[in-house]
Amino acid sequence: MPYRLIKFAFSKQHPEAAFFRQPAQIRDSYDAVIIGGGGHGLAAAYYLARDHGITNVAVLERGYLGGGNTGRNTTIIRSNYLTPEGVAFYDASVKIWENLSQELDLNLFYSNRGHFTLAHTESAMRTMRWRAEVNKQMGVKSEVLGPDDIQQACPQIDLSCAGHAPILGALYHAPGSVARHDGVAWGYGRAASQMGVEIFQNTEVTGLDIRGGRIHGVQTNRGNIKTGKVLSAVAGFTPRITQMAGIRTPIVIHPLQACVTEPMKPWLNTILVSGSLHVYVSQSSRGELVMGAALDPYELHSTRSTLDFVEGLSSHILDMFPFLSGIKVVRQWAGMADMTPDFAPIMGRTPVAGFYLDAGWGTWGFKATPISGKTMAETMARDQEPELIDAFRLSRFREFELTGEKGAAAVGH
Amino acid sequence: MSYRLPQQSGEWIDRNLTFSFSFEGKTYQACNGDTVSSALWASGVRVLGRSFKYHRPRGVLSLANHDINVMLENGIDINLRADVLPVTAGMKLDAVNTAGGVVKDYLSVLGWLAPFLPAGFYYKAFHRPRLLFPFWENIIRRMAGLGVMNPKAPRLVSPKTNLHCDVLVVGGGPAGMNAALVAAKQGARVILVDENARLGGTLGYDSSSGLGPGQQLEQLCEEIEAHADIEVHLSSYAAGYYADHLLPLIGPEGMAKVRTRQLIVASGAYEQPAVFRNNDLPGIMLGSAAQRLIQRYAVKPFERGVVLAGNEQAWRVALDLLAAGVELAAVIDLRMDPPPAGLIPPAVLVYSGYCIYEAVGSSGLEGVWACPWDGQGNADQSRAIYIPCDGIAMSVGWAPASALLYQAGAKMKYDEDCQQFVPDSLPPGVHAAGRVNGIYGLADSLADGERAALGALGLSSVINLLPASQASHPWPLVEHPKAKNFVDFDEDLQLKDFATAAQEGFNNIELMKRFTTVGMGPSQGKHSNMNAIRVLARLRDEPIQRVGSTTARPFFHPVPMGHLAGRSFHPVRHTPLHGWHQQHEASFTYVGAWQRPAWYGPDKATAIVNEVRAVRHAAGLIDVGTLGKFELRGLEAGEFLERFYTGHFLQQKIGTTRYALLLDESGVITDDGVVARLAEDFYYVTASTSNAAAVYREMTRCLQLWGLEVTIVNLTGSYAAFNIAGPLSRQLMEGLTTADLKQISNGGAIETQVAGQQARVMNVRFVSDLAYEVHAPAQSILSIWQALVEAGQSCGLKPFGIDAQRLLRLEMGHFIVGHDTDGLTHPFEAGLDWALAKDKTFYIGQRSLKIKANKPLTKKLVGFTLPHPPANLPDECTLVLEQGRIAGRVTSIAFSPTLGQVIGLAYVAPEAGIAGKRFVIRHQDGSDVAAIVSKLPFSGAAA
Question: CB-hemisphere CA count at 13 Å for A36?
Fold first, then answer.
């Protein structure tokens, strides 16, 4: 029994303090305002305080902490991307993840499972080889494995996929992990709060005060705030904020759905992704199978679920695991993915001085939480992006210098 | 001993048909119609399952499909719910998630550790030291989870059906039944669905409601059965609400997807437990569960029991227990005022203003401590009385089964008089009736059903009912310093867990749910959410309305993946020549949905070499019927192609072919094909197999935007095609056609007869300098193909597959879109400058290319050879390195039998892309392989 649990049993009062300071009033001005109380926004607040000593910061969250895509994603963490810039960036994130529970002193259930991207076609095998070689070149552990290795890691899988899409091989990425998504937001929120950051839930930004090409403040449903630095970290709500800022981005919003089964005893120890069958699956520490699929094919600013999603997903999961027929899906949900044309994020300064964008996180934002927070904090503190995120600058779309990560998206989109 | 009662008037069991089944290794008897829980309870079994976290013994709670602490496995399926699972002969069942069996589960020791494990404890520990986390995680993962999945379980294939109706009524209780009848009588086509095996809802077990309920139920059922326009689905549940009134009904055999004009939700309410210490001991059940046991299954719930009362229902439960011969030790009434005379026989002891402070027992209830209380959770222990008993029926309140309403977008409000959430505003076409609407009592429920039905049909109704008063007790929770007063039975959450969560800052209903996991178990909060909301409202000192509830998402009730998947649909496309390929030992590969021959014959390596040799030295035939094939007709067809592709097509001569390169708006290569002009206003266009559908979609999209006078017909499926290539191809073709093929040798196209069939013949030199593509209607292609095969038999003609084709085109130096290009490749990188018309005013992607043209190239596609090839060649997509940096990658590589060397295509740094220059390929095994840039086509390749 870990020592830390003992205090619970022998304290008269529950010995834990509140995670977050929740001041009743928002002050008139802050050194920086972060729009969005998800993982990215809270991480940026944490690193602003920790690395740059900027603690006079307000985080504004329209709903509740981590209630957007942080709490809706399927929590896969990996760095087996396709472009050298992407691999370097996500690898830096994985390195922070590995010690994040200890750093935030909150058990995020960072669980290293190994990640298989299954290839069912020759062309998918080529992409796996490409990613493996780029990864290796960048010092990231990825390799192409054959069907036997897959069978060994997951003896239950039907390699023929009911004869419809035989598995030819896989990209195996040993560092692939999952983590407890809510905990990430709470952990960063708690640590930021302890350093003086103020967090306001149920606080919606209604406008931006921009004069002379520079940000001067934000308007909220709870009053106006003066500030010279604003970060937008709002995922699916990005177009609404950029519209307030008068900034054009190529972001479009597509729903991304997921679902979860009833809990069962552990049997699936790896993370499996199939591009051809458009599904991915892992088993949570609670024993549920967490499953997702491709983006909905239409633009929509909504988190409503559809029946076809869960029908198609079940059909494809059963191709791989026919014995799950009787396993029940308990819950389905959707998030709003802010998609970019090249499947890479948009990070850094914008044409409005003092207004920074952390957006375009589509379906790949959760794994980047620590590094995006760290690099955006640096960008805000110095008004200059670190080189690590140069490939993600907004201007790349005008300059035709895209960072093509479509080939590394989890499933075909 | 048997707890089976004498025959009850509406019982669901058939006493003439009995059988035995086993539970945890012991054999029991059941009547047909029994559920596992009812049969076991009748046999005196009290511990039916174990709880998730502390492995506490649990028995019957609801008997209403959410007794999730009583889940079973049968060797195939897991997490079967005993309270609704019908017993069949010979069943062998075990409880899930026990260590050493349900009776002596040694993990029940965890109950003693509960003080160490408050809500969210796992966030606070196990991560230090980091290296030990996998050890702890392993333990935690094994402790979690319910049943043990069986990897040998069969894939169940259940059919799906689609149904349409005017009115879908969810819930076959009095309100729903009457709503269905009223709607049907008005001429509507109605579907009525209920999760139970029989209609009736509360009318079937709450026997004291209204007058002559037995008769009334029978009458309603008869009327419904007799009505031709009411389709009844029993043992089925509406699992979710989706846009435009789509609701999947999940039954034992599969899923029916109902699209309805109007939806009436008459789904009733879930009875809610009271919260007091040890409120989970077997023998403590909801009042409605006791009633279900008695009326449906003729099972005596207990011998000597108490009723915990908080609403009107409690008196009926008490009367039912008395009628079933239960010794009623007391009614403990949470309310302060004594009941009006006449509700309950004077002999029954009623403690008004009392609560149950604590239940006593180990594996079953032995007695209760009842205390006077303040109605707010605080008991006066100084006046505690002990009442020995083996059962408690809790009738303290309800929570509406409103999941479908929430999913449909209803706004709910908390009615302080009824103490229940009721609909405030409903979306168009959605109606609520009965208990979900706050309407209780038989007469009112029937009337509310009628009102909803008339409303659904757009008819006016004079009925306007208000929610019942005090249907639920506002605070059925009692504090206890030793806790074990459970709010959530799925997750073993105790009352104090909510206070500690709030103390830690999780005082928003969504955050509280996520931190404590309340409502996240398999019953999805059906018996816990309402109490959790009450607790949070009190902690925040706010009205319940302001606390609100968590978002209700599908599914309302878990759905097996087999039912969702149905039969599965995997379309496969075959060309008209597929049968011929099969007869000639073709090995097939998938290209999208198409199956194409990869090679012919038993051995891949020799087959490919022989096929390539045939094309180079004699002739070869390949089925290219999978290509996209489009006819464009109209005066502006040329103008359309001029805008669509990068080349010139307006001036294209009739009877010629041209290369067609398609870009997207950002100038990225998306497809290529051939355009043949067959008449002034008639072009025939091909697209690659993988992109055929996308190209057609893009063509039709552009046509709408541009508004040109063109008709596009997609012949991809109705036309077939093959390519005949090699030095003998002209000779072989000329034997079958009168056309002068020399005339089209240099990029020509004609319509002519081949082997007596009308066909389009084009000179397409993808795999060989001398090659013809023959396109003909699907039904006539086989005869042309066979005629050529026959003619070529003596001179070495062979069919070849796509593996040989890939090699042949590589020898020719041709790239394949998607194989040698990726999602960002533009024509300058691929060396396709020549395919871009310089003097056009517009084509798709032109604007982007103008910008790209002013930027330095970063990589370039070149041909290469390997001077010293390793035995194991580098894979396609291995990297090209330039001073340790990634400069590009190999896109194609193979040993060319024709040239006797390894050739390939690769992206290299632009300055390295000059014939004769050397570059380095990083082999997948980590070694470096030298390569030399080669001119294209590779010399000596073409025949």
Answer: 27
The structure's pTM equals 0.95
Distance CA B120, CA B292 (A): 36
CATH of A25-73+182-250+342-408, one of 3.50.50.60, 3.30.1490.20, 3.90.1030.10, 3.40.50.2000: 3.50.50.60
pLDDT category, B211, cuts 50, 70, 90?
Answer: very low
Task: Closest CB to B558: pick one of A110, A129, A328.
Answer: A328
The answer to whether residues B188 and B329 belong to one domain is no
Q: How many domains does chain B have?
A: 6
Is 3.30.9.10 the CATH number for A111-177+252-339? yes
Residues 57-86 of B with CB under 8 A from A: 76-79
Quote the domain boundaries for residue B390.
273-396
Contacts of B115 in chain A (CB under 8 A): 8-9
Which residues of B fall within a CB distance of 8 Å from A327? 78-79, 149, 560-561
CA distance A212 to chain B (A): 30
Contact list in B for residue A183 (CB cut-off 8 A) is: 123
CA angle B287–B288–B290, rounded 5-degree value: 65
A331-363 pLDDT, tens per residue? Answer: 999 999 999 999 999 999 999 999 999 999 999
Residue B290 to residue B526: CA distance in whole angstroms: 18
Listing DSSP states for B297-361 in one string gives T-B---SEEEEEESSTHHHHHHHHHHHTT-EEEEEEESSSSPPPTTSS-TTS-EEETEEEEEEEE
Tens digit of each residue's pLDDT (9 = 90 or more) over B748-784: 999 999 999 999 999 999 999 999 999 999 999 999 9
> Given pLDDT bands bounded at 50, 70 and 90, which one contains residue B40?
very high
Per-residue pLDDT at A304 exceeds 70: yes
Contact B106/A at CB under 8 A: no
pLDDT band at B210; cut points 50, 70, 90 = very low
| B565/A315 CB distance under 8 A | yes
